[in-house]
Amino acid sequence: MRPVVEVAATDGAARAGRVVTGRGGFDIPCFMPVGTRGAVRHLSSADLSELGTAVVLANTYHLMLRPGADVVAGVGGLHRFMDWPGHVVTDSGGYQVFSLAPTVDDGGATFRSTYDGSTHRLTPEGAVAVQDALGADISMVLDVCPALPAPQPVLRAAVDRTADWAGRARAAFAAGADGRAARGIEQAQFGIVQGGTDLQLRAESAERTVALDFDGYAVGGLSVGEGSAERLPVLAAAVALLPVDRPRYLMGVGDPVGVVEAVGLGIDMFDCVLPTRHARHGSILTDAGKLSIGNAGFAGDPGPLDPSCACPVCPRWSRAYLRHLLKVGEPTGPRLLTIHNLFWLVGFLARLGESVREGRFAAFRTEVLATWGGGSAL
Question: pLDDT (tens digit, 9 = 90+) per residue, 304-361?
């Protein structure tokens, strides 16, 4: 079934409610941890369930290379492969168009494998086929995401190619509907809005993407080099043109300030490597802001990471112990810090939604900006 947004409350443009899907649904606003290779770094699917995670993002490019989409399909799809009962979103490989600098032409992108150097071709139709085999609940179209700042001709080319690829991906997705139904897969497809920091291109990309009638819409190509002063106006321009009854997803943003500002513009879904990357480097998300546990001042600190946190870690292990694990390279350290960070961020999104339901979003936003200094935590 097509995902439907059931809005329970609004406060300005911010909204809270639920996205209803064939798998059941999930509350919005929602944070999706990144499970690049079918697992969130240091965590199991059981951990994710216990931490209140509803949706996980997996990476199409990496999974099609290792172990291969056919292998995943052969064992029953990503949900069975991961033993994950929640929702799975798969990206398209479009981020790798940005990060790995493949050869891109009108037909698609040619990559060199990060594993063994072999060459692989990914087209809009191919990305649909891979995600079909993976069995994701929500699949993304292949897009072109230029790094910012970028000259206007580069942004124009990215918008045009993304729109062309979106049309091809939508046709391929429709052609595969019977096959998915025969395998019992209910999959939605999201389009992606590009345009960099150009307001007119963002609006144009949104209009061209909406015209293809996707099941949901993502805003991509942000948090790739621009500042928040540039990001927010173009995000607002895109969101203003997206249907109110479809999910809205801001790709690659997960810092508290970025999230609260985007929710204020009407965004529902977020993904980011922030909880795991921060944990591996000893940066802890707390109600008082970011804490660097590697600081020497915590070497003998018997207190919890965050006195106000009820995660499985804070009531049990001290800052001193967790710092020790991190400093000696004990893998248990990043695991415990990741558990805390993900618990905190999932809880942050829940509290954000509660503020919308209770009509106090503005006050919540003010508090977040004051705590986090009005800047990104990334």
Answer: 999 999 999 999 999 999 999 999 999 999 999 999 999 999 999 999 999 999 999 9
Domain boundary among 240, 272, 304: 272
- 271 is known as an active-site residue: yes
Q: Are 175 and 181 within 8 A, CB to CB?
A: no
The total of structural domains in the chain comes to: 2
**Considering 91, 143, 198, 268, which one is annotated as catalytic?**
91
pLDDT grade for 95, boundaries at 50, 70 and 90: confident
Last residue of one domain, picked from the residues 247, 272, 297: 272
Active-site pick, 47, 255, 271, 306: 271
9 located within any domain? no
Report the alpha-carbon distance of residue 299 to residue 318 in Å, rounded: 10
pTM of the model: 0.96
Q: What angle do CA 363, 365, 367 make, to 5 degrees?
A: 70
